[in-house]
């Protein structure tokens, strides 16, 4: 075992930081969580000349001053965990802006190695960067890289080892000048902080002074808890603000940013960068002239979405059927080798059936993710956000809300779990919350199967139109509800939309594969844990208590009687013919028994119990149980309906016969159908989504989502039922 | 000619004179490099005219007209 060096990999969004991280760590990266927060943390290992270099991938951040969850994480990891070396990846094509973060790292004093990424693009643009000079002026090692090709990987690691050997992981904050207006104030504050030993256990005194002038809420809150010095410092800040407003018509934080950029600018002007034009039009611009064109832009966007939908379902159908077949085979094994009874039923119907129905969607999710990740890495999703922002803003959302909404089922077949998780990319807490709370209304993959079944039953003549209308309704409800939320519980101004539009860059296969598998794995893990537990619970609810011995005996007698009757009626039939005939007859009795059993079970009784209420919305009793099951996982709706319609275990794919039965049942009047459609769209997100919401926000909002959606869905369903009743 | 950034036409260049936004919005705008003295060019507008896309410091930034109102530029 060699020496361990703890390294944090940081950088601004789209700088190729994660690409480099993956190139360095190879397959050794694993996902963890930052303590106390839910932002994912990727960790990996690199061995070199007796050094174990332990890397942590920080979330992308433009600055250490801002407040989104990910930016705070990036800063806190540096400040709290004090890594031995910080690798700051930099997009060399936007050097000036990229160095803004680097300068702030230097102000904290973190030992740093700069990775100058995308040097190939820089060269192509006709720009020369004097790496040596930059390194000399900044006083930190600078390594040119091309992360996509893995170039500069070893050099970077060597520089890390060298930096560690040289500095031994000690921190040396640099002192930047912030001009004649602020420097004396910073001096004064630094002295006070030093004298009082205020927060000095964690931070550099001068840095604390600067953070106070920048009005950094987090540091100020920490300060208030630490002692009375905070009040003195805040008083000085107020004074400084009045002073700077009078003298330069600007606030201290603006002056600090100006001077930082001034410092960078001055540095680069000393012959570091030559050639190129910062305002030059790029090839991305020419593409954008069409892709974000007034007319073509939206048309292309719709076409892309339509293609994604097509590819997901046409290609996805094959692996989906394989996974299904695999689970059926498993279920078959269970039926053959396990003794008939509760254990067999638990394993086959409860566990394999429940988890299988969810895992059956994995291929679809995998394909859809791969395409979304591709579009995201390509830079197209940023264009979608840019084009949609004006529309979404009307409803209190943000341009960046588009992705989570699409992923949740904005095109049918998504899943709210990754949708809710991907809302992390939103830097604005209010819009993020509104997106998370409304995304589950979308037509996710599970709802899609249920709607396909219902649509096939009730609108056999124009299923496409019916589905289209359902999706349209979903979008409508999402927009309206988020508007309502933003007017009531998530009040507040809309957050600024200041977003980088990255140039188009063809993603690497490896990058897309890694990101896709990461997200799919999270989904599979949930299916293996939460859904397994819920499946078992649902199975128990729908199995116990069993019918009394007498009732069962009654059905047995009926069956026997039926068999006898058939034998008597067809005295000449062969054994085979007889078997076929009796099967038909006993099937009907089996169905009856199953229905009786379901009505008798806890689930059936619960359904009967809530009947007086659900009657207001006109739900047939079978839908009651099925919707109840749908809370566990919306997939359960179809399988429960199948059981409720006395068909035993039925493959959700073979829903034709079930649809026929549904169509024949008079309880499904048009108002009842529409009411169930509405309720299905809006009611409580499934268990897994609720857990995801709680993880991304907190349990209070998760509970709000559960009860809020339930109430809203019920009121809407009842309204639809009554209204449709008037016209029917 | 000093005007609000909102008034700049597509393909027009300008140099930032002042950023009057405060608080979180001001911080975000400045973090991205919109500080006085920065050269910018409007490279496009979204289909509904808002947001606007700017080329500056070698990259493209988009912001809403509501935010552009806080930025005054000298049109070049």
Please name the defining characteristics of this protein.
heterodimer, A: 728 residues, alpha/beta, seven-stranded mixed sheet, two-stranded antiparallel ribbon, 7% strand, B: 76 residues, six-stranded antiparallel sheet, 6 strands, globular
Oligomer: heterodimer
Largest interface (CB < 8 Å) = A-B, 52 and 41 residues
> Helix count of chain B, per DSSP?
2
Number of distinct beta strands of chain B: 6
**Helical residues, percent of chain B:** 10-25%
Q: Please state the average pLDDT score of chain B.
A: 91
Strand order of the largest sheet of chain B: 1-6-2-3-4-5
Could you give a short account of the major beta sheet of chain A? 7 strands, mixed
| Average residue-wise pLDDT of chain A | 85
Tell me the layout of helices and strands.
The complex is a heterodimer of chains A (728) and B (76).
Chain A: E1 3-11, H1 17-25, E2 30-33, E3 40-48, E4 51-57, H2 69-81, E5 85-91, H3 95-108, E6 112-117, H4 119-124, E7 128-129, H5 131-138, E8 142-144, H6 153-167, H7 179-196, H8 205-213, H9 217-226, H10 229-248, H11 252-269, E9 273-274, H12 283-291, H13 296-337, H14 342-359, H15 362-378, H16 380-394, H17 402-410, H18 416-422, H19 429-438, H20 445-458, H21 463-487, E10 498-501, H22 509-543, H23 549-569, H24 575-600, H25 602-614, H26 621-632, H27 636-644, H28 656-664, H29 670-682, H30 687-696, H31 699-727
Parallel strand pairs in A: 1-4, 1-5, 5-6, 6-8
Antiparallel strand pairs in A: 2-3, 3-4, 7-9
Chain B: E1 2-4, E2 13-19, H1 23-31, E3 39-45, E4 52-56, E5 59-63, H2 65-68, E6 71-75
Antiparallel strand pairs in B: 1-6, 2-3, 2-6, 3-4, 4-5
């Amino acid at each position: 075992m060699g020496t361990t060096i703890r390294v944090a990999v940081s950088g601004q969004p789209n700088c190729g930081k994660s690409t480099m991280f993956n190139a360095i760590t190879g397959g050794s990266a694993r996902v963890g969580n930052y303590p106390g927060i839910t932002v994912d943390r990727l960790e990996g290992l690199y061995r070199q000349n007796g050094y174990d270099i332990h890397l942590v991938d920080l979330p992308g951040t433009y600055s250490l001053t801002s407040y989104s969850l990910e930016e705070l994480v990036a800063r806190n990891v540096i400040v709290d965990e004090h890594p031995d070396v910080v690798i700051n990846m930099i997009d060399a094509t936007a050097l000036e802006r990229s160095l803004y973060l680097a300068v702030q790292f230097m102000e904290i004093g973190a030992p740093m190695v700069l990775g100058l990424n995308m040097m190939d693009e820089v060269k192509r643009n006709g720009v020369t960067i004097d790496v040596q000079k930059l390194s000399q002026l900044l006083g930190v090692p600078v390594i040119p890289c091309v992360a996509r090709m893995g170039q500069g990987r070893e050099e970077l690691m060597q520089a890390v080892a060298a930096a560690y050997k040289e500095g031994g992981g000690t921190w040396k904050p640099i002192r930047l000048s912030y001009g004649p207006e602020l420097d004396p104030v910073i001096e004064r504050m630094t002295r006070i902080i030093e004298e009082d030993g205020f927060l000095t256990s964690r931070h550099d005194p001068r840095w604390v002074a600067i953070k106070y002038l920048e009005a950094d809420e987090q540091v100020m809150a920490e300060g208030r808890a630490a002692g009375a010095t905070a009040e003195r410092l805040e008083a000085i800040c107020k004074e400084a603000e009045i002073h700077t407003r009078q003298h330069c018509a600007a606030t201290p934080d603006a002056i600090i940013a100006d001077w930082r950029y001034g410092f960078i600018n001055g540095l680069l002007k000393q012959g570091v960068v030559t050639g190129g034009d910062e305002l030059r039009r790029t090839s991305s611009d020419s593409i954008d002239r069409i892709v974000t064109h007034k007319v073509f832009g939206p048309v292309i966007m719709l076409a892309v979405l339509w293609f994604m939908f097509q590819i997901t379902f046409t290609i996805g159908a094959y692996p989906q059927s394989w996974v299904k077949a695999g689970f059926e085979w498993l279920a078959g094994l269970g039926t053959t080798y396990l003794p008939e009874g509760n254990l067999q039923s638990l394993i086959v119907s409860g566990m394999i059936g429940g988890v299988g129905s969810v895992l059956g969607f994995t291929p679809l999710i995998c394909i859809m993710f791969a395409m979304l990740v591709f579009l995201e890495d390509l830079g197209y999703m940023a264009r979608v956000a840019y084009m949609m922002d004006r529309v979404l803003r009307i409803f209190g959302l943000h341009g960046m809300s588009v992705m989570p909404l699409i992923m949740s089922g904005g095109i049918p077949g998504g899943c709210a779990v990754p949708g809710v998780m991907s809302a992390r990319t939103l830097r604005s807490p209010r819009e993020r919350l509104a997106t998370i709370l409304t995304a589950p209304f979308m037509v996710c993959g599970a709802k899609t199967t249920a709607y396909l079944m219902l649509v096939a039953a009730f609108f056999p003549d124009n299923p496409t139109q019916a589905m289209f209308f359902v999706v349209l309704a979903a979008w409508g409800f999402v927009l309206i509800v988020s508007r309502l939320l933003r007017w009531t519980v998530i009040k507040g101004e809309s957050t600024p939309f200041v977003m980088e539009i990255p140039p188009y860059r063809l993603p690497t296969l490896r990058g897309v594969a890694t990101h896709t598998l990461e997200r799919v794995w999270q989904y599979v893990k949930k299916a293996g844990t939460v859904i397994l537990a819920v499946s078992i619970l649902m199975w128990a609810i729908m199995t116990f208590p069993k019918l009394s011995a007498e009732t069962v005996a009654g059905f047995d007698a009926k069956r026997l009687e039926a068999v006898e009757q058939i034998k008597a009626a067809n005295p000449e039939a062969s054994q085979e013919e007889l078997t076929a005939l009796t099967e038909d007859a006993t099937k009907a009795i089996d169905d009856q028994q199953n229905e009786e059993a379901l009505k008798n079970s806890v689930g059936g009784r619960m359904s009967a119990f809530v009947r007086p209420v659900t009657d207001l919305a006109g739900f047939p009793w079978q839908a009651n149980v099925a919707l109840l099951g749908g809370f566990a996982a919306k997939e359960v709706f179809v399988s429960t309906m199948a059981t409720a319609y006395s068909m035993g275990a039925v493959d959700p794919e073979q829903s034709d016969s079930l649809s026929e039965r549904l169509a024949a049942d008079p309880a499904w009047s048009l108002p009842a159908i529409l009411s169930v459609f509405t309720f299905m769209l809006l009611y409580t997100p499934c268990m897994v989504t609720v857990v995801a919401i709680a993880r991304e926000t907190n349990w209070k909002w998760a509970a709000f989502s559960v009860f809020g959606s339930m109430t809203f869905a019920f009121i809407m369903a009842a309204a639809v039922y009554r209204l449709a009743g008037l016209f029917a | 000619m000093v005007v609000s950034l909102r008034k700049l036409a597509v393909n027009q260049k300008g140099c930032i004179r002042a950023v009057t936004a405060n608080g979180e919005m001001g911080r975000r705008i400045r973090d991205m490099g919109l500080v006085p003295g920065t050269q910018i060019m409007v490279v496009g507008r979204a289909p509904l005219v808002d947001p606007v896309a700017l080329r500056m410091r070698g990259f493209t930034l988009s912001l809403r007209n509501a935010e552009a109102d806080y930025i005054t530029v000298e049109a070049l």
